[in-house]
Design brief:
Blueprint: E1 4-10, E2 17-24, H1 32-40, E3 45-46, E4 49-50, E5 55-56, E6 63-72, E7 75-84, E8 87-93, H2 96-112
Antiparallel strand pairs: 1-2, 3-6, 4-5, 6-7, 7-8
Length: about 140
């Protein structure tokens, strides 16, 4: 059973409509760990850490963030899906910078709410975070 649907969506950064991209749907069948395994079959990967020091991203198995990269005839596309106790939201981005900013916002929210272990002295907004906090953990980059 597929947990994605192919849809036409607007990218968050450029507002262009892209078609036929996989959008993850709500998942209330099993646990977040099961969701994590199933989305891998659909080309997605859960992102366990964020920032250069590898701070926690989410609160497994209740809150997770996943990513995907693909391309169309216009260029690269980046996706983020957030999972919160079975409720799933998928967003798409044309640029890697916008994708990383969206993940950083999610990380900032989790860290500031105490849902995940993050950096000390966190600023008030994600936009104010240093580059150390606003990029992928180097250990996960290929």
């Amino acid at each position: 059973m597929s947990i994605t649907t192919l849809s036409a969506v607007a990218t968050q950064d450029t507002k262009e409509v892209i078609t036929g991209v996989p959008v993850l749907t709500d998942y209330h069948l099993n646990t977040g760990y099961d969701w994590m395994e199933e989305i891998e079959d659909e080309g997605w990967a859960v992102i366990p850490n964020w920032g250069v020091d590898g701070w926690d991203l989410g609160q497994w198995p209740y809150v997770m963030v996943a990513g995907m990269r693909t391309a169309d005839e216009q260029g690269q596309l980046f996706a983020m899906a957030t999972y919160c106790e079975g409720d799933v939201k998928t967003t798409w981005y044309r640029t890697q910078a916008a994708h990383w900013a969206a993940i950083s916002e999610q990380a900032h929210f989790s860290w500031s709410m105490g849902q995940a272990t993050g950096p000390k002295n966190l600023p008030a907004t994600a936009a104010e975070m240093s580059a150390r906090c606003s990029q992928p953990y180097p250990g996960w980059l290929s």
